[in-house]
Specification:
It is built from seven helices and 16 strands. It has about 325 residues and is of the alpha+beta class. It has a domain at about 15-190: Gyrase A, domain 2, CATH 3.30.1360. A six-stranded antiparallel β-sheet has the order 15-12-13-14-11-16. It has a five-stranded antiparallel β-sheet with strand order 1-7-10-9-8. It has a five-stranded antiparallel β-sheet with strand order 3-4-5-2-6. About 50% of the residues are buried.
Amino acid sequence: MAADDNRRMNTSTSGTAGAVRLTDWGILRARGEDAASFLHGQLTQDVLHLDAAHARLAGYCSPKGRLLASFVVVRPAADEIWLACSADLLAPALKRLSMFVLRARCKLDDASADMAVWGLAGAAAGDWLGDARGQATWSCARRDDAIAVRLPAAPAAERWLLLQACAAPGPALPALDVAQWAALEVQAGVGRIVAATVDQFVPQMLNYELIGGVDFGKGCYPGQEVVARSQYRGTIKRRTLPFQIDAVAQPGDEVFHGDEPDQPAGMVVNVGADPDRGSQGCSALVEVKLAAVNSGTLALGSAEGPRLRPLPLPYKLPADAP
């Protein structure tokens, strides 16, 4: 990685601190004595043994192992579980999960009218959270009636999700621009499924097994055999990596390699701001063939489109990946 790329990634959101209401997130709520066991059999993560002090990243897969949604899972009470996810997936995820409840004592609903999701970042946010800031990634703690989840950090700032009642006052912090928050998501290397990327990726394509999104010992869930085969059959050939693009991209946009101009080499997962380029550019998490990263050039939209420039990933890929 070139030194200027490292500098660009670490300074593009320097000084980022504050809070932003994440209107593109929502919360599915599961209540009832079978809520945990039901979700345990549906998601890539162990929900049955989840406690109030921890949150978990989890995927919801099709029978073919492709992600239909990604969730940050919180258990505020023994018989209640919150699934924070992209707002544009609330209705389809709720509909699909409800199809499989059957006789389980579990009631599912969209809690977004009651609960708000906030993004908090930086040292000021940590100070405001106090004891609720947590010491470990995916730790979970209460601040008054809100729940704070410590997310994987970005190089520029620590991050949290704050889940609280819509009627409650927002955090007493400076306003953080939503595009800055999205840039921190990209920096942290944690891809989030949105409507445009449903049914496109197995969890390993988003590096989920590396960042705590898959429990390979928990037992069956939809797509589990496919996910397990992807893990154990050999080298994973596609990963999600951060890039800078001198154009505005959208989730679901395809990227191409110069040596294979007629076949997409990857897909944009999430997009964030690029203060160096303003409205003329963005940072993005892109799921891509690893072979296409090793040589040649990647471009947005076509092989002749705006070039993708690699940025640092804040965690290590397996040794057989670049």
